[in-house]
Specification:
Blueprint lengths: L4 H10 L3 E5 L24 H4 L2 H6 L1 H15 L6 H11 L3 E6 L5 H5 L4 E2 L2 E8 L5 E3 H10 L14 E5 L8 H13 L2 E5 L11 H7 L3 E6 L11 E4 L2 H14 L5
Parallel strand pairs: 1-2, 1-7, 2-3, 7-8, 8-9
Antiparallel strand pairs: 4-5, 4-6
Length: 254
């Protein structure tokens, strides 16, 4: 029997420590294309050519010609009702942590304080001398450069954004925090992630191994579908709004 947002609300209401894990699918309704799904960005570009650390170092102009339009695209993008619903569940104390694979900062704009395991598009970094600048300054330096490559004012090396590139290690503190939250969770709600990319793909298994439950809301299939107590398909925005409304009906409102 298909599950409903009301089933998700019941699972959330019964939990004591719910953790949300999100992927690209939660942001598609904000107008951000999914990189990995059919028709996504990586069907048109080879990620190891345009999104890798090696290309950033050896071909900065090529790297920034791909990266800059994506920065510009995200400038005016706003959270959709799914991001807002997650933030509301945090405010109510139902959701205790948000772990995201997304770099778009939409959870933060919605009012959450997410654990960003793939970094975030919120700053510029120099890998040579570790200087950091704001995102606005990063863009300003790119605009001022003839080749479109922002550079460090201290050492002259090209700057990168806070997004983790292919071939670059994930932020250790964020990964450790994500694992710690999964270990504490009695319910993990997965929204918009295919659960195919390690190490994040291992987090639901930690919850299940500790006797917790799993709820999944994605358009695509995942390896954990058979283990999910609640499995919802489709777009997240409307279903998350319905789940919050159902929690109100259960007496778990503001």
């Amino acid at each position: 029997m298909p599950h409903s947002p009301e089933d998700l609300a019941a699972a959330l209401a019964a939990s004591e420590y719910a953790v949300v894990l999100t992927g690209a699918g939660i942001s598609t309704e904000s107008g951000i294309p999914d990189f990995r799904s059919p028709g996504g960005v990586w069907e048109k570009f080879d990620p190891m050519e345009v999104g890798s650390l090696s290309t950033f170092i050896s071909e900065p102009e090529r790297f920034w010609s791909f990266h800059r339009p994506r920065i510009d695209m995200l400038a005016d993008v706003q959270p959709n009702p799914a991001h807002l619903a997650v933030a509301e569940l945090e405010r109510r104390g139902i959701v205790r942590a948000v772990v995201t694979q997304n770099i778009d900062r939409l959870h933060a704009k919605a009012g959450s304080d997410p654990i960003e395991v793939h970094g975030a598009l919120d700053r510029g970094l120099c890998l040579r001398c570790q200087d950091a600048v704001s995102l606005d300054e990063l863009v300003a330096r790119a605009d001022a450069a003839e080749d479109g490559v922002p550079r460090c004012s201290s050492c002259g090396f090209q700057l990168k954004s806070g997004v983790v590139l292919f071939g670059e290690p994930l932020p250790a503190a964020a990964i450790e925090a994500a694992y710690a939250e999964a270990a504490r969770a009695d319910l993990m709600l997965v929204i918009g992630s295919s659960l195919l990319v390690a190490p994040v793909s291992q987090l639901p298994g930690i919850v299940l191994d500790n006797g917790g439950t799993l709820a999944i809301l994605t358009e695509s299939e995942t390896p954990y579908d058979g283990a999910a107590q609640v499995r919802l398909h489709g777009r997240a925005a409307a279903q998350m709004k319905e789940a919050v409304a159902a929690l109100d009906a259960l007496g778990r409102g503001a």
